[in-house]
Design goal:
The complex is a heterodimer of chains A (341) and B (160). Chain A has 341 residues and is an all-alpha fold. Chain A is built from 13 helices and no strands. Chain A has one domain. The longest helix of chain B is centred in the middle third of the chain and has 13 residues. Chain B is globular, with a radius of gyration of 16 Å. Classes of the chains: A mainly alpha (341), B alpha/beta (160).
Chain lengths: 341, 160
């Protein structure tokens, strides 16, 4: 309620400033939500797992306690590391922040809408991953190199699938702008049930799991160096650098789950059609819808992980090739079936 | 589906949390603020203590609810969980692991062997107790120590 009343106080100035100001507020809210909420999502997912495994769990706030402690610890530059090692956490966190700002999670009428391009977002995610892989290589340890090589293998299979599956959705929208795609789906919700959209949804869900290093592709809580992918690259990071990396991983998971929610369950995303108070209410609904959708998707993912074991490393390309095939079928379906309809 | 039924039927196995342990914590431990990551180092243990540590982080004792977690790298850790008498082969690795932990760092010696070499005192392969190699902040007596005793030592560090 306090959020509503404070928004009401500032609405007089907003009416004069026009829809751009509302879009700006929505974008700022979206970034704040991802920055604050990403560790909470990780905590929620750990808590769901703990409860299903019969444990009590550390609480939803534990990732924030971990981050606070890491920020107070001493930073260490291991002997022999250079600028790629020091730059990687900053690039990873920076790209995660930019993606969190441009992707249409809360609103499609953001002032950064022109940057919310399918290719730009995929490239930004890849830039973060490559920076971290270089940081892992830079340590010169066996596990750093091994983790980097595995991460790049997964990346090479994941990026085309993200591109192709969102491309299947963009064919009908006639644009690779994510905001346009989300807006069009929200205007005509039955599109979600079309074969192209369903195939793309499954492909994108699989790719989200692989990109964020969850079971069955990677185990985020493993202690076995030989099975690690993401963890093996960050073994040498400590203190504030590690805090940045852990926050960025959580933020990427939040953004990808949010994007999945926006693309296939677009209800509640503000479109910027209304003016004045109506636009503000739409933004608040968008915030609530984004938080609820991401939390539900995260809980589903965590519950699914309880029932699964990690795949053998050599079977992961098969899984990802399967998801690429689904994405390809989605594109084919969107061309052939669009002609019939 | 059978796993789902099992989850429903089993419910919570974690035992109710005991009272917060009394006794002094290292003064620096307040900086950790309820989150302590542990790196376990087996310096020459018979693996009796490892079984107990395994159950400490298992579902029944669930040390994770107090903010303790085992990690894969000393760089991620705040504290070392050292078991066994320090053998000649593990003396240098233990010291280097300790040096790899960023400040503020703590060492918990788990079991009688880690405290004073236990039954292995004076053996030809033993370099000394953990306290002879790295500074020890907390000790857990027992051969092997009970999970409750290990939990109490971890909770003094996490403060929860």
């Amino acid at each position: 309620m306090t959020g509503l009343s404070s928004a009401g106080l500032s609405s007089a100035g907003l009416n004069a400033a026009g829809p751009d100001a509302v879009g700006l507020i929505a974008t700022v809210l979206q970034v704040v939500l991802v920055v604050v909420g990403a560790p909470l999502l990780t905590g929620l997912m750990r808590q769901v797992r703990a409860r299903m495994e019969g444990r009590a769990g550390a609480g939803v706030l534990q990732p924030w306690r971990d981050l606070r402690k890491l920020l107070r610890k001493e930073p260490i530059d291991p002997r022999g590391t250079g600028w790629p090692f020091r730059l990687a956490p900053l690039v990873l966190a920076g790209t995660a922040l930019v993606v969190a700002a441009v992707v249409p999670l809360v609103t499609t009428a953001s002032p950064l809408d022109s940057a919310a391009d399918l290719f730009a977002v995929t490239a930004l995610l890849a830039l973060g991953s490559v920076a971290l892989a270089l940081g892992g290589l830079d340590t010169g340890t066996a596990f750093g190199g091994m983790g980097a090589s595995r991460e790049v293998t997964v990346l090479a299979l994941v990026e085309p699938t993200i591109l192709v599956s969102v491309f299947a959705l963009s064919v009908r929208a006639g644009s690779t702008n994510l905001g346009t795609i989300v807006g069009l789906t929200e205007a005509d919700p039955m599109r979600v049930l079309s074969p192209a959209s369903l195939l793309a949804a499954v492909a994108l869900a699989l790719v989200t799991i692989a990109e964020t290093g969850r079971i069955p592709v990677d185990n985020p809580s493993t202690h076995l160096e030989l099975t690690m992918i993401h963890e093996a690259m960050v073994l040498e990071y400590s203190g504030p650098d590690l805090a940045l990396i852990e926050w960025a991983s959580a933020a990427r998971l939040t953004v990808l789950l949010g994007l999945l929610g926006s693309l296939f369950l677009p209800w509640g995303v503000a479109t910027g059609g209304a003016a004045g108070m109506g636009a503000l209410v739409a933004v608040l609904v968008g915030v609530a819808a984004f938080a609820a959708k991401t939390a539900v998707l995260g809980m589903l993912l965590a519950a699914g992980e309880v029932f699964m074991a990690k795949l053998r490393l050599f079977r992961i390309p098969e899984l990802l090739a399967g998801s690429f095939l689904l994405a390809l079928l989605a594109v084919a379906a969107s061309y052939f079936l669009a002609g019939g309809a | 589906m059978s796993l789902w039924r099992k989850i429903r039927k089993t419910g919570r196995v974690a035992e109710p949390a005991p009272e917060r342990p009394t006794g002094e914590a290292p003064p620096e431990a307040a900086k950790l603020g309820g989150s302590v990551q542990f790196r376990h180092v087996d310096a020459g243990s018979c693996n009796g203590c490892e079984v107990e540590i395994g159950s400490v982080f298992g579902p029944v004792y669930d040390a994770e609810r107090y903010g303790a977690r085992l990690v894969a790298s000393p760089r991620h850790a705040d504290a070392l969980l050292v078991t066994g008498p320090v053998t000649r082969n593990m003396e240098v690795p233990l010291r280097r692991t300790y040096e790899a932990v960023p400040e503020p760092r703590f060492v918990v010696a788990v079991g009688d062997c880690a405290r004073d070499c236990g039954v292995f005192a004076g053996a030809y392969g033993v370099a000394g107790a953990v306290g002879d190699v790295v500074p020890v902040d907390a000790e857990v007596p027992g051969c092997p120590p009970e999970p409750e005793a290990i939990i109490a030592a971890l909770r003094r560090l996490t403060g929860r």
